[in-house]
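Quick one:
INPUT:
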């Protein structure tokens, strides 16, 4: 009689890593303002047939309809959107004509930056709202939330004019900018660690004073909202802020505020 060999620790770690990969992928698509709810349903089905070690899958449209309760045109639109955003890369067709896709968490870093900016904006709005309420109390007026700030109390990604738009198309992470002179003051920090590659991150500051000094040089006396500076500070300390995406965020904010 042959004894059953229990799964090894390596197998358990592989399964756990693959599950984390899938959860991270779903979190990214869920938080991506360019994706629709249908996109999340479609990518979830594909992820059921893929793993971190083998991130490819093919699913017939009829099967997608069955598993998502979506119509065929909706599924086709969602799949095209996922392809255009880089989450699904065609790899050819299989025997029954279905297209096989490689699944790539292509926008994770961009979405992470987007969430950092959004959180800092909500903190800033909460602080301003408290100031507003205290001022109303001092004057004896009834408490009320100004219409332009009411959205801050909803669990939604802000989309008002004062906020960076709920889209990432205009400030792709790691994109290059011609106006490099705005970051000339940081060349001493940047060139020592990464040369001239503007897409590589700044070195992580060792102290808060160094971080503040680096942020001052990044901003270069430009009119940038506190929440944008705070968000860039968090990215800088995490080692994810580069000259390209710092300039991109600053320019994007200035375009929206103008």
């Amino acid at each position: 009689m042959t004894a059953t060999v229990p799964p090894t620790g390596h197998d358990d770690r592989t399964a756990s890593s693959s599950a984390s990969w899938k959860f991270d992928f779903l979190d990214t698509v869920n938080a991506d303002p360019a994706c629709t709810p249908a996109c999340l349903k479609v990518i979830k089905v594909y992820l059921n047939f893929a793993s971190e070690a083998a991130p490819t899958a093919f699913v017939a449209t009829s099967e997608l309809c069955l598993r998502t309760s979506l119509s065929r045109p909706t599924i086709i639109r969602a799949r095209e959107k996922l392809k255009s955003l880089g989450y699904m890369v065609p790899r050819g067709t299989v025997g029954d004509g279905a297209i096989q896709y490689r699944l790539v968490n292509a926008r994770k870093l961009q979405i992470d930056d987007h969430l950092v900016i959004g959180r800092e904006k909500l903190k800033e709005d909460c602080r301003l709202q408290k100031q507003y309420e205290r001022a109303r109390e001092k004057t004896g007026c009834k408490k009320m939330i100004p219409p332009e700030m009411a959205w801050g109390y909803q669990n939604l990604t802000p989309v008002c004019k004062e906020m960076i738009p709920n889209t990432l198309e205009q400030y792709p992470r790691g994109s290059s900018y011609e106006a490099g002179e705005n970051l000339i003051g940081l060349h001493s920090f940047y060139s020592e660690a990464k040369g001239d590659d503007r897409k590589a991150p700044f070195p992580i500051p060792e102290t808060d004073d160094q971080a503040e000094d680096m942020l001052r040089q990044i901003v270069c006396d430009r009119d940038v909202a506190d929440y944008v500076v705070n968000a860039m500070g968090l990215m800088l300390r995490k080692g994810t802020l580069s000259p390209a995406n710092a300039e991109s965020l600053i320019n994007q904010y200035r375009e929206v505020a103008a």
